[in-house]
Amino acid sequence: MGRFIDWYAVELDGYLKGRMGDEQRFDAVRELQNHFAEHVDDLVQKGMDAESAEKSAIRTFGPPNIAAQNLLPLRERPKLGNFLVGLACIAIVFSVWMFAFFANQVRLQSWDSFRYVPQIFFVTGVSLAIGFIGSTLAKRRVATLSFLAAWVIGLILGGAFLTLTSNRYFANIPPSEVPEKLKLWKSGNESTAALSKDLAEARSIVSQFSVNHNSRSPYSYEYRNGHAPSPEEKSKAIARLQEIAQHMISLKPAYVAVGGTQTTGYLVPRDGLNEFGNYYGLHAESFRSPTGPGFPFLEVQLAYVKSDDQVLEAWQDSESVFYGTHEVSSMVNRQEEFIQTAAEMQMTSRATVVAQILMLTASWTFLVLASCLFVCWILTKIPRVRPRRSYKRIFA
Amino acid sequence: MGFKGDLEALILAILADHALHGYEISKRIRTQSQDVLKYGEGQLYPALHKLEESGFIAAEWMMQDGKPDRKVYSITTSGREELERHKSAWTKFSAGVGNIFSNQAQAKESR
User: Fold this and answer.
1) A50 part of contact set with chain B, CB < 8 Å
2) Rounded to an integer, what distance in angstroms lies between the CA atom of residue B29 and that of residue A3?
């Protein structure tokens, strides 16, 4: 067999590789080689020289990429490929949007998610490797299993990642510290519940109130005051906060809502602790601000009052030291309602977290699948050799 | 004039008498139709593979000395039945077309 036929066979094989089973591909190329050989024999017998005969025989088939396309089974032809790649592109765009959206919903910076959870890289790597293997082998069963494996791995690891960091209060906290924080939070809730019970029995609650605060970052300060805090203002605020902190009493948070920054607590009476006489305090423990790492955020907030009438006044006074907004409302002797509301809110928050986990997991696995599909398609499209120019040069 | 599925029918007809390889099939289509029917080789092999997949023809590899192996196709029983169906459809089709043409010719003569 002449070199042109050999060349054509290599080109054709390159185009079919990855788009047809190995055995099927080998048979198709061998059959065409036989066809060329028979044709060349015929032409040579008619008096044509061998090289011209080879070229003439090859011309009847056209460029190898076209011949390869004709040889592919109908379901493998680019029509379906185009449809799939279009679908994959839409899926990727949609998935990225969903991922960013939900990551933001749980107060996670996308990059932080990747940085703190190296499993993401593992998932991506494994998915791409599976996609590569699937597309290279190009056996439908293997490709299907690869996609399935990508789904399962993405689901498991994506779920594990979200379980760890889906709560906003754990953003920017290294995963190793999350269990400790969770424990602290739970114990805070339990102790508050116990305290609520004790207080209810003793009927010793003077005042209850809820505080809506937004003191997470200098942006809220800027929003309220029209400019970013200066270094002097920051120093002043820190000094004032430290001063207040020296006088406060400690009470674990009654409830910290997942969906917002509302902190609700009880004012409890304490005697003779400082020059203010009796005062009431709220200790709302929270974690560092996820959005303002460059700005100090006091983890403890305090109100000190002598009576209900003084609640608003006290908070208005302390407000000046917080970079954020505070709305205080007095809810005197409404303990039963408060406990009921807190319980309902807690249930809602759990449902919200579960929904967020499910949505983020779904979007992540969708992204993995779409990426896998796209990589597979790209790999099957890249020819092992590039025959067009050389075909034109030799046979045109 | 187009006739749906004609290449597959022609292949079955060519293979009805002999088992042949791809190149020979294409040559016979050309010679037996006196160069009226010329299918590109690019069309022939997909049609052969489709017929093989459908079970209308069977293929067998034959070793050759000094040449690439040859894949020889032969018609199967179901292939013969399919050929009969094609023949019947073609007879009806050609009769219908013939009738129209002869009617036109008669109308022309009567004018």
Assistant:
1) no
2) 29
